[in-house]
Amino acid sequence: MEGLPEKREANAETKGLTFSTIYTSKQQRDIKVSDEFDAEFEIEYMPSHANKEVVVLHKPSKTLITADLIFNLPATEQYSKTGTPANTGFLTKLFIGVMNTKGAATWQKRLLWYGGSKADRKGFNESIARIDKWDFERIIPCHGDVIEGNGKSIFETVMEWHLAKKN
Fold first, then answer.
1. What are the structural domains of the chain?
2. Is the model's pLDDT at 109 over the cut of 90?
3. What angle do CA 36, 41, 42 make, to 5 degrees?
4. Closest CA to 113 of 103, 124, 102
5. CA dist 91 to 34, 74, 80, 94, Å?
6. Rg (CA), the chain
7. SS3 78
8. Structure pTM?
9. How does pLDDT run across 111-133, given as a tens digit for each residue?
């Protein structure tokens, strides 16, 4: 995404790394990676997200891949080989209580509403509406366990306020 090439160039370990495709807010609807890639994947670049989120849909497996858009804590799968439980420590327990997809996911909704989307809520809502049109059943979040089978309904629960286009 935009900004990443400059960030990599400023880092001695990644200096000189080049990218064949860079998503920008001005060109995101026109970018094509390759016929083969574009046949299997949909990409939604969200410059309106506080972290400039990139959401990927792998069409054949109906899998949505996110970075910071949806959390599904605790991250038991990610910690399974560390020897450390995924739910230890006061702050971890607090964050697990806030950033999960159980029930109405009210706290996650609030964090997205008041933090993740506040700079450009209209643009955020538009991206969420485009993603909601995709056909997916599984969500692989960067933070937390994979959501199997009911990913679309959980996405709609977490993004309820954005899908309703509240301002």
1. 1-31 (no CATH), 34-163 (3.60.15.10)
2. yes
3. 130
4. 124
5. 43, 12, 19, 5
6. 17
7. helix
8. 0.88
9. 999 999 999 999 999 999 999 99
